[in-house]
Amino acid sequence: MFLSSVAITNDGTYRIQVRASSVSPSSTGHYLVTVWQTTPNVTPLALNQVVSGSIQTPYSVDQWTFGANQNDQVLFHLVGLSGSGIGFDLRGPSGWQGFTNVVGDSDFVTLPTSGSYSVLAHSLSGQYGAVYAFELLGITITSLALGAPYQGQFAVSGQGQLFQFNSSATTEADSFTQITATFGAGTLAPGTYSVRVT
Predict the structure, then answer these.
(1) Do 90 and 75 touch, CB atoms closer than 8 A?
(2) Residue 95 — φ and ψ, nearest 5°?
(3) Which of 56, 47, 106, 53 is nearest to 77 (CA)?
(4) Which 8-state DSSP code applies to residue 126?
(5) Model pTM?
(6) Which residue ranges make up each domain of the chain?
(7) d(CA 43, CA 66)
(8) What local confidence, expressed as pLDDT, does residue 191 receive?
(9) What kind of fold does domain 41-139 have according to CATH?
(10) Do the Cβ atoms of 40 and 62 come closer than 8 Å?
(11) 3-state class (DSSP) for residue 155
(12) Who has the most CB within 10 Å: 44, 81, 83, 133?
């Protein structure tokens, strides 16, 4: 028998009662009972910073929370893992899921709405004791001034940066109002690059 996510609503001492079923009230035998702490460990998450944690029981959940705006993009980068059997989920408002049970780096994910999001670390197959470290790389819209250089830095291949600028009445009709610069594996290595919009 397995009971999951039983809420403890008040402080105090609780007891577990074990008895034979009503179908066989006179039955006897051996049994093993285990109580696990399953309350999620909720911690704020800062984008573009490495964080770490550990899965201490088969039912442990580390919930890393962050706020984001609609159309922001994020990429999950697994920095390190001391064992195996640990998966990561990205969840958002109204039950939205960006990815589930990933065990390595994710693709870039576009967040559908403004609100609170979470990265959850958990056991996949009852394994526990693993220590992990990850970084959630975020892309936000950066405003550019026409004719002014912008210098940024990419941490991993495939990371993108979204820019926008304001155009005036004298801007030519074929000018664009938003650009995306993405440097993937096999094109440009991670590093520092400059972008100029004229």
Answers:
(1) no
(2) 80, 10
(3) 106
(4) S
(5) 0.65
(6) 41-139, 141-196
(7) 9
(8) 55
(9) Jelly Rolls (2.60.120)
(10) yes
(11) coil
(12) 81
Q: Per residue in 123-158, pLDDT tens? A: 998 888 899 999 999 876 677 777 777 777 665 555
What is the C-alpha to C-alpha distance for residues 190 and 198, in angstroms, rounded to an integer?
25
Concatenating the DSSP letter of every residue in 56-101 gives: -STT-EEEEEEEE-TT-EEEEEEEEESSS-EEEEEE-GGG-EEEEE
Tokens of 192: 């520092």
Q: Say how far apart CA 60 and CA 33 lie, in whole Å.
A: 18
Copy the structure tokens of residue 191. 């590093």
Distance CA 190, CA 118 (A): 27
DSSP 108: P
DSSP string covering 15-42, please? -------SSSTT--------------EE
